[in-house]
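In response to the reviewer comment on reproducibility (Comment 2.3), we provide here a single inverse folding case reported in full, input and output, so that an independent group could reproduce the run without further information from us. The structure tokens appear first.
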């Protein structure tokens, strides 16, 4: 009877050991799977952090480009207003020159030179307007390219700077030429008036004369 009981106890111990070993193997497998998932999760988290950092960097670059584009837009508006002021001065000078041209109509060579200068001014004025339109179109192109790539925006911004510089030079040349024409017209008018006064003995201080 004791032998049978001992054998039964031995069988139970063997069965317990087998179950314990199976549970241990299963626990080991689960731990390995957990470790693998943890490693994969760490990799995913690292990739997410890298992408988040890259996204912040791209946002900062986008904000910088947007600020630069706004600065260029304001500069373009300033140049455009300056050009309008020069055009107004040109019109005022043209108004002054008109009666002077009538008074010096007999001086054919001077009139021809004056008209030539005026034609040059009109051509430069027209060219400056075309340059302003081109600068405006380039600005719109830059704004559209901003949504695509930073490289395209940089090229368009450089183009706008080039046109703006060219426009400023043309405006300076226009102002310089307008001043020169006004001075020439005034000098010719004074010379003509003096010559007439000498020729016909006219007193220039007498308004009736």
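Designed residues, in position order:
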């Amino acid at each position: 009877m004791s032998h049978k009981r001992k054998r039964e106890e031995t069988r139970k111990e063997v069965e317990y050991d087998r179950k314990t070993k199976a549970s241990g193997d299963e626990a080991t497998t689960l731990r390995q799977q957990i470790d693998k998932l943890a490693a994969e999760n760490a990799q995913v988290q690292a990739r997410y952090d890298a992408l988040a950092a890259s996204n912040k960097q791209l946002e900062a670059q986008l904000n910088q480009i947007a600020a630069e584009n706004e600065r260029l837009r304001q500069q373009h508006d300033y140049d455009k207003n300056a050009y309008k002021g020069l055009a107004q001065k040109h019109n005022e000078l043209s108004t002054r020159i008109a009666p002077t041209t009538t008074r010096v109509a007999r001086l054919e060579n001077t009139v021809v030179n004056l008209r030539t200068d005026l034609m040059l001014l009109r051509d430069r004025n027209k060219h400056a307007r075309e340059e302003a339109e081109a600068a405006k179109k380039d600005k719109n192109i830059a704004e559209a390219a901003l949504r695509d790539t930073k490289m395209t925006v940089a090229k368009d911004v450089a183009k706008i700077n080039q046109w703006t510089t060219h426009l400023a030079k043309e405006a300076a040349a226009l102002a310089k030429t307008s001043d020169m024409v006004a001075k020439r017209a005034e000098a010719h008018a004074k010379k003509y008036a003096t010559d007439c006064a000498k020729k016909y003995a006219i007193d220039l201080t007498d308004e009736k004369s």
